[in-house]
Amino acid sequence: MATVIDGKVVAQTIRSEIADEVRLLSQKYGKVPGLAVVIVGNRKDSQSYVGMKRKACAELGIKSFDVDLPEQISQAELIKQVHELNANTDVHGILVQLPLPKHINEEKVLSEISLEKDVDGFHPLNIGKLAMKGRDPLLLTLVSKLCDPHYTKPACLELLQRSGVTIKGKKAVVVGRSNIVGLPASLLLLKADATVTIVHSHTSQPENIIREADIVIAAAGQPKMIKGSWIKPGAAVIDVGTNAVDDPTRKSGYRLVGDVDFEEASKTAGWITPVPGGVGPMTVTMLLKNTLEGAKRYIEQNN
Ligand SMILES: Nc1nc(=O)c2c([nH]1)NC[C@@H]1CN(c3ccc(C(=O)N[C@@H](CCC(=O)O)C(=O)O)cc3)C=[N+]21
Protein backbone atom coordinates (compact mmCIF):
# COMPACT_ATOMS: atom_id res chain seq x y z
CA MET A 1 0.00 0.00 0.00
CA ALA A 2 1.21 3.46 -0.91
CA THR A 3 2.03 6.20 1.54
CA VAL A 4 -0.66 8.82 0.97
CA ILE A 5 0.95 12.26 0.83
CA ASP A 6 -1.28 14.64 2.74
CA GLY A 7 -1.11 17.96 0.90
CA LYS A 8 -3.22 19.63 3.56
CA VAL A 9 -0.71 18.86 6.29
CA VAL A 10 2.28 19.96 4.21
CA ALA A 11 0.39 23.09 3.15
CA GLN A 12 -0.49 23.89 6.75
CA THR A 13 3.14 23.56 7.84
CA ILE A 14 4.28 25.94 5.13
CA ARG A 15 1.40 28.34 5.87
CA SER A 16 2.43 28.67 9.49
CA GLU A 17 6.03 29.39 8.37
CA ILE A 18 4.64 32.10 6.07
CA ALA A 19 2.51 33.62 8.86
CA ASP A 20 5.61 33.87 11.09
CA GLU A 21 7.55 35.66 8.38
CA VAL A 22 4.67 38.03 7.66
CA ARG A 23 4.64 38.96 11.36
CA LEU A 24 8.39 39.61 11.35
CA LEU A 25 8.15 41.76 8.24
CA SER A 26 5.37 43.79 9.75
CA GLN A 27 7.26 44.29 13.03
CA LYS A 28 10.46 45.29 11.27
CA TYR A 29 9.11 47.52 8.49
CA GLY A 30 5.48 48.20 9.38
CA LYS A 31 4.46 46.67 6.04
CA VAL A 32 2.62 43.51 5.01
CA PRO A 33 2.70 41.56 1.73
CA GLY A 34 -0.11 42.40 -0.71
CA LEU A 35 -1.69 40.08 -3.27
CA ALA A 36 -4.03 41.32 -6.00
CA VAL A 37 -6.51 38.69 -7.14
CA VAL A 38 -8.20 39.63 -10.39
CA ILE A 39 -11.30 37.78 -11.53
CA VAL A 40 -13.24 38.44 -14.74
CA GLY A 41 -16.85 37.28 -15.00
CA ASN A 42 -18.70 34.93 -12.67
CA ARG A 43 -17.70 31.36 -13.42
CA LYS A 44 -18.59 29.35 -10.35
CA ASP A 45 -15.36 27.37 -10.19
CA SER A 46 -13.23 30.50 -10.57
CA GLN A 47 -15.18 32.26 -7.83
CA SER A 48 -14.67 29.35 -5.51
CA TYR A 49 -10.89 29.21 -6.15
CA VAL A 50 -10.56 32.95 -5.80
CA GLY A 51 -12.54 32.83 -2.55
CA MET A 52 -10.08 30.24 -1.17
CA LYS A 53 -7.12 32.42 -2.12
CA ARG A 54 -8.57 35.54 -0.51
CA LYS A 55 -9.49 33.64 2.66
CA ALA A 56 -6.00 32.19 2.94
CA CYS A 57 -4.52 35.69 2.60
CA ALA A 58 -6.66 36.90 5.49
CA GLU A 59 -5.53 33.97 7.65
CA LEU A 60 -1.84 34.69 7.09
CA GLY A 61 -1.95 38.47 7.46
CA ILE A 62 -1.43 39.10 3.74
CA LYS A 63 -3.48 42.00 2.39
CA SER A 64 -5.63 40.98 -0.55
CA PHE A 65 -6.62 43.49 -3.20
CA ASP A 66 -9.83 42.24 -4.75
CA VAL A 67 -10.46 43.22 -8.35
CA ASP A 68 -13.76 41.85 -9.66
CA LEU A 69 -14.42 42.72 -13.28
CA PRO A 70 -17.44 42.12 -15.53
CA GLU A 71 -17.44 39.36 -18.18
CA GLN A 72 -17.76 41.95 -20.97
CA ILE A 73 -14.70 43.98 -20.01
CA SER A 74 -12.46 44.77 -22.97
CA GLN A 75 -8.91 43.45 -23.18
CA ALA A 76 -7.58 47.01 -23.16
CA GLU A 77 -9.48 47.85 -19.99
CA LEU A 78 -8.26 44.67 -18.26
CA ILE A 79 -4.68 45.49 -19.21
CA LYS A 80 -5.15 48.98 -17.83
CA GLN A 81 -6.18 47.44 -14.50
CA VAL A 82 -3.08 45.23 -14.54
CA HIS A 83 -0.89 48.28 -15.17
CA GLU A 84 -2.42 50.04 -12.17
CA LEU A 85 -1.60 47.05 -9.99
CA ASN A 86 1.95 46.97 -11.40
CA ALA A 87 2.32 50.58 -10.24
CA ASN A 88 0.78 50.04 -6.80
CA THR A 89 3.66 49.68 -4.33
CA ASP A 90 1.46 47.93 -1.75
CA VAL A 91 0.84 45.09 -4.22
CA HIS A 92 3.68 42.53 -4.36
CA GLY A 93 1.90 39.78 -6.26
CA ILE A 94 -0.69 39.80 -9.04
CA LEU A 95 -2.85 36.85 -9.99
CA VAL A 96 -5.25 36.97 -12.92
CA GLN A 97 -7.57 34.01 -12.51
CA LEU A 98 -7.75 31.75 -15.56
CA PRO A 99 -9.55 30.98 -17.78
CA LEU A 100 -10.40 34.43 -19.11
CA PRO A 101 -13.46 35.00 -21.34
CA LYS A 102 -13.01 33.97 -25.00
CA HIS A 103 -12.73 37.52 -26.37
CA ILE A 104 -9.58 38.15 -24.30
CA ASN A 105 -6.13 36.90 -25.27
CA GLU A 106 -4.77 35.31 -22.07
CA GLU A 107 -1.17 35.34 -23.19
CA LYS A 108 -1.35 39.06 -23.95
CA VAL A 109 -2.79 39.86 -20.53
CA LEU A 110 -0.35 37.63 -18.61
CA SER A 111 2.59 39.20 -20.41
CA GLU A 112 1.57 42.62 -19.03
CA ILE A 113 2.03 41.55 -15.40
CA SER A 114 5.32 42.88 -14.11
CA LEU A 115 7.92 40.10 -13.83
CA GLU A 116 8.54 40.84 -10.15
CA LYS A 117 4.85 40.45 -9.32
CA ASP A 118 4.20 37.32 -11.40
CA VAL A 119 3.38 35.05 -8.46
CA ASP A 120 1.84 32.37 -10.70
CA GLY A 121 4.97 32.20 -12.84
CA PHE A 122 2.78 32.45 -15.96
CA HIS A 123 4.56 35.34 -17.66
CA PRO A 124 6.01 34.05 -20.96
CA LEU A 125 9.46 35.34 -20.00
CA ASN A 126 9.37 33.46 -16.72
CA ILE A 127 8.35 30.28 -18.56
CA GLY A 128 11.21 30.89 -20.98
CA LYS A 129 13.67 31.19 -18.12
CA LEU A 130 12.33 28.00 -16.65
CA ALA A 131 13.26 26.25 -19.89
CA MET A 132 16.88 27.35 -19.75
CA LYS A 133 19.64 25.82 -17.73
CA GLY A 134 21.08 28.16 -15.15
CA ARG A 135 18.37 30.81 -15.54
CA ASP A 136 15.66 30.68 -12.97
CA PRO A 137 12.43 32.60 -13.08
CA LEU A 138 11.98 35.11 -10.33
CA LEU A 139 8.93 33.46 -8.87
CA LEU A 140 7.28 30.25 -9.69
CA THR A 141 4.26 28.95 -8.04
CA LEU A 142 3.33 26.74 -10.74
CA VAL A 143 1.57 24.02 -10.98
CA SER A 144 0.69 25.84 -10.01
CA LYS A 145 2.96 25.76 -7.70
CA LEU A 146 4.67 22.63 -7.87
CA CYS A 147 7.42 24.90 -6.92
CA ASP A 148 9.01 26.54 -4.00
CA PRO A 149 10.50 29.96 -4.64
CA HIS A 150 14.04 28.71 -4.42
CA TYR A 151 13.28 26.87 -7.62
CA THR A 152 15.37 23.94 -6.70
CA LYS A 153 12.44 22.59 -4.73
CA PRO A 154 9.35 22.55 -6.89
CA ALA A 155 6.27 21.94 -4.74
CA CYS A 156 5.22 18.72 -6.33
CA LEU A 157 8.75 18.49 -5.87
CA GLU A 158 8.34 19.99 -2.45
CA LEU A 159 5.66 17.37 -1.79
CA LEU A 160 7.98 14.64 -3.05
CA GLN A 161 11.00 15.82 -1.13
CA ARG A 162 9.14 16.33 2.12
CA SER A 163 8.07 12.72 1.68
CA GLY A 164 11.65 11.57 1.17
CA VAL A 165 11.43 10.90 -2.57
CA THR A 166 14.53 11.89 -4.55
CA ILE A 167 14.18 13.18 -8.09
CA LYS A 168 17.75 13.21 -9.38
CA GLY A 169 18.36 10.40 -11.86
CA LYS A 170 14.77 9.12 -11.71
CA LYS A 171 12.54 8.41 -14.71
CA ALA A 172 9.68 10.89 -14.59
CA VAL A 173 6.62 10.80 -16.85
CA VAL A 174 4.38 13.85 -17.10
CA VAL A 175 0.91 13.20 -18.47
CA GLY A 176 -0.35 16.35 -20.21
CA ARG A 177 1.42 19.37 -21.69
CA SER A 178 -0.66 22.40 -20.69
CA ASN A 179 0.96 25.79 -20.27
CA ILE A 180 0.00 25.95 -16.62
CA VAL A 181 0.87 22.46 -15.41
CA GLY A 182 2.27 19.80 -17.75
CA LEU A 183 4.87 21.87 -19.54
CA PRO A 184 6.28 23.72 -16.51
CA ALA A 185 6.23 20.52 -14.43
CA SER A 186 8.33 18.81 -17.11
CA LEU A 187 10.82 21.65 -17.11
CA LEU A 188 11.02 21.65 -13.33
CA LEU A 189 11.70 17.93 -13.21
CA LEU A 190 14.37 18.33 -15.85
CA LYS A 191 16.03 21.04 -13.74
CA ALA A 192 15.88 18.66 -10.79
CA ASP A 193 17.90 16.14 -12.88
CA ALA A 194 15.14 13.64 -13.68
CA THR A 195 14.95 11.93 -17.07
CA VAL A 196 11.66 13.31 -18.35
CA THR A 197 9.11 11.99 -20.83
CA ILE A 198 5.89 13.83 -21.66
CA VAL A 199 2.87 11.88 -22.85
CA HIS A 200 -0.17 13.62 -24.32
CA SER A 201 -3.30 13.12 -26.41
CA HIS A 202 -1.31 12.07 -29.49
CA THR A 203 0.89 9.54 -27.69
CA SER A 204 0.09 5.97 -28.68
CA GLN A 205 -0.19 3.55 -25.79
CA PRO A 206 0.77 5.98 -23.03
CA GLU A 207 0.36 3.15 -20.51
CA ASN A 208 3.55 1.50 -21.76
CA ILE A 209 5.51 4.68 -21.07
CA ILE A 210 3.83 5.40 -17.74
CA ARG A 211 4.67 1.85 -16.56
CA GLU A 212 8.37 2.72 -16.69
CA ALA A 213 8.04 5.82 -14.51
CA ASP A 214 9.53 6.17 -11.04
CA ILE A 215 7.62 9.46 -10.78
CA VAL A 216 4.27 10.15 -12.49
CA ILE A 217 2.82 13.66 -12.66
CA ALA A 218 -0.78 13.39 -13.82
CA ALA A 219 -2.03 16.60 -15.40
CA ALA A 220 -4.30 15.53 -18.25
CA GLY A 221 -7.64 16.76 -16.92
CA GLN A 222 -9.25 13.36 -17.57
CA PRO A 223 -11.01 11.76 -14.60
CA LYS A 224 -9.42 8.43 -13.55
CA MET A 225 -7.65 8.06 -16.87
CA ILE A 226 -4.53 6.53 -15.30
CA LYS A 227 -5.28 3.00 -14.18
CA GLY A 228 -3.74 1.15 -11.28
CA SER A 229 -2.19 -1.42 -13.64
CA TRP A 230 -0.20 1.39 -15.33
CA ILE A 231 1.74 2.20 -12.18
CA LYS A 232 5.17 0.71 -11.57
CA PRO A 233 5.39 -0.82 -8.10
CA GLY A 234 6.83 1.70 -5.67
CA ALA A 235 6.42 4.72 -7.98
CA ALA A 236 5.59 8.19 -6.66
CA VAL A 237 2.32 9.45 -8.16
CA ILE A 238 1.40 13.14 -8.02
CA ASP A 239 -2.14 13.78 -9.21
CA VAL A 240 -2.72 17.36 -10.34
CA GLY A 241 -6.15 16.60 -11.86
CA THR A 242 -9.17 18.30 -10.31
CA ASN A 243 -12.14 17.06 -12.31
CA ALA A 244 -15.66 17.76 -11.11
CA VAL A 245 -17.91 14.75 -11.79
CA ASP A 246 -21.66 14.61 -11.16
CA ASP A 247 -22.61 13.11 -7.83
CA PRO A 248 -26.31 13.37 -6.96
CA THR A 249 -25.62 12.05 -3.44
CA ARG A 250 -23.78 15.28 -2.60
CA LYS A 251 -25.37 18.55 -1.65
CA SER A 252 -23.16 20.35 -4.19
CA GLY A 253 -24.21 17.88 -6.91
CA TYR A 254 -20.60 17.05 -7.77
CA ARG A 255 -17.39 15.66 -6.36
CA LEU A 256 -13.73 16.11 -7.31
CA VAL A 257 -11.75 13.26 -8.78
CA GLY A 258 -8.17 13.16 -9.96
CA ASP A 259 -6.64 11.93 -13.21
CA VAL A 260 -5.53 8.77 -11.42
CA ASP A 261 -7.71 5.86 -10.32
CA PHE A 262 -6.69 6.34 -6.68
CA GLU A 263 -8.30 3.16 -5.30
CA GLU A 264 -6.34 0.93 -7.65
CA ALA A 265 -3.14 2.95 -8.00
CA SER A 266 -2.66 3.25 -4.24
CA LYS A 267 -2.27 -0.55 -4.07
CA THR A 268 0.84 -0.44 -6.27
CA ALA A 269 2.38 3.01 -5.85
CA GLY A 270 4.98 3.82 -3.21
CA TRP A 271 3.56 7.31 -2.67
CA ILE A 272 0.42 8.94 -3.98
CA THR A 273 -1.42 12.25 -3.57
CA PRO A 274 -5.20 12.17 -3.13
CA VAL A 275 -7.77 14.46 -4.78
CA PRO A 276 -8.96 16.48 -2.99
CA GLY A 277 -6.34 17.09 -0.32
CA GLY A 278 -3.16 16.64 -2.36
CA VAL A 279 -1.71 19.20 -4.77
CA GLY A 280 -4.73 21.59 -4.57
CA PRO A 281 -4.00 23.04 -1.13
CA MET A 282 -0.32 23.37 -2.07
CA THR A 283 -1.28 25.47 -5.08
CA VAL A 284 -2.77 28.15 -2.90
CA THR A 285 0.05 27.92 -0.37
CA MET A 286 2.83 28.39 -2.89
CA LEU A 287 1.02 31.39 -4.28
CA LEU A 288 1.09 32.97 -0.82
CA LYS A 289 4.71 32.00 -0.35
CA ASN A 290 5.63 33.72 -3.61
CA THR A 291 3.73 36.82 -2.55
CA LEU A 292 5.78 36.85 0.66
CA GLU A 293 9.03 36.42 -1.29
CA GLY A 294 8.04 39.25 -3.65
CA ALA A 295 7.21 41.49 -0.68
CA LYS A 296 10.48 40.71 1.11
CA ARG A 297 12.51 41.51 -1.98
CA TYR A 298 10.67 44.75 -2.58
CA ILE A 299 10.53 45.99 1.02
CA GLU A 300 14.14 45.14 1.78
CA GLN A 301 15.34 46.88 -1.39
CA ASN A 302 13.37 50.02 -0.65
CA ASN A 303 14.34 50.53 2.97
N1 LIG B 1 -4.10 32.41 -12.49
C1 LIG B 1 -4.46 31.21 -12.05
N2 LIG B 1 -3.69 30.58 -11.12
C2 LIG B 1 -4.05 29.35 -10.63
O1 LIG B 1 -3.33 28.79 -9.80
C3 LIG B 1 -5.25 28.73 -11.10
C4 LIG B 1 -6.01 29.42 -12.06
N3 LIG B 1 -5.59 30.64 -12.52
N4 LIG B 1 -7.15 28.87 -12.56
C5 LIG B 1 -7.67 27.60 -12.05
C6 LIG B 1 -6.57 26.70 -11.48
C7 LIG B 1 -7.08 25.65 -10.50
N5 LIG B 1 -6.45 25.95 -9.23
C8 LIG B 1 -6.69 25.29 -8.02
C9 LIG B 1 -6.43 25.86 -6.80
C10 LIG B 1 -6.73 25.22 -5.61
C11 LIG B 1 -7.32 23.97 -5.60
C12 LIG B 1 -7.67 23.34 -4.29
O2 LIG B 1 -7.32 23.81 -3.24
N6 LIG B 1 -8.39 22.22 -4.31
C13 LIG B 1 -8.82 21.50 -3.11
C14 LIG B 1 -10.31 21.22 -3.12
C15 LIG B 1 -11.15 22.42 -3.16
C16 LIG B 1 -12.63 22.08 -3.30
O3 LIG B 1 -13.11 21.24 -2.52
O4 LIG B 1 -13.27 22.65 -4.18
C17 LIG B 1 -8.14 20.15 -3.03
O5 LIG B 1 -7.69 19.63 -4.07
O6 LIG B 1 -8.08 19.60 -1.94
C18 LIG B 1 -7.57 23.36 -6.82
C19 LIG B 1 -7.24 24.01 -8.01
C20 LIG B 1 -5.69 27.06 -9.37
N7 LIG B 1 -5.69 27.51 -10.62
TrEMBL record:
Residues 152-297 form the Tetrahydrofolate dehydrogenase/cyclohydrolase NAD(P)-binding domain. The keyword Hydrolase applies. One of its GO terms (cellular component) is cytosol. Residues 5-120 form the Tetrahydrofolate dehydrogenase/cyclohydrolase catalytic domain. Pathway: One-carbon metabolism; tetrahydrofolate interconversion. InterPro entries: Aminoacid_DH-like_N_sf, NAD(P)-bd_dom_sf, THF_DH/CycHdrlase, THF_DH/CycHdrlase_cat_dom, THF_DH/CycHdrlase_CS, THF_DH/CycHdrlase_NAD-bd_dom. The keyword NADP applies. One of its GO terms (biological process) is photorespiration. Keywords: Hydrolase, Multifunctional enzyme, NADP, One-carbon metabolism, Oxidoreductase, Photorespiration. It catalyses: (6R)-5,10-methylene-5,6,7,8-tetrahydrofolate + NADP(+) = (6R)-5,10-methenyltetrahydrofolate + NADPH; (6R)-5,10-methenyltetrahydrofolate + H2O = (6R)-10-formyltetrahydrofolate + H(+). GO terms for molecular function: methenyltetrahydrofolate cyclohydrolase activity; methylenetetrahydrofolate dehydrogenase (NADP+) activity. Belongs to the tetrahydrofolate dehydrogenase/cyclohydrolase family. Homodimer. Catalyzes the oxidation of 5,10-methylenetetrahydrofolate to 5,10-methenyltetrahydrofolate and then the hydrolysis of 5,10-methenyltetrahydrofolate to 10-formyltetrahydrofolate. This is Methenyltetrahydrofolate cyclohydrolase. It comes from Vigna mungo. The lineage of its organism: Eukaryota, Viridiplantae, Streptophyta, Embryophyta, Tracheophyta.
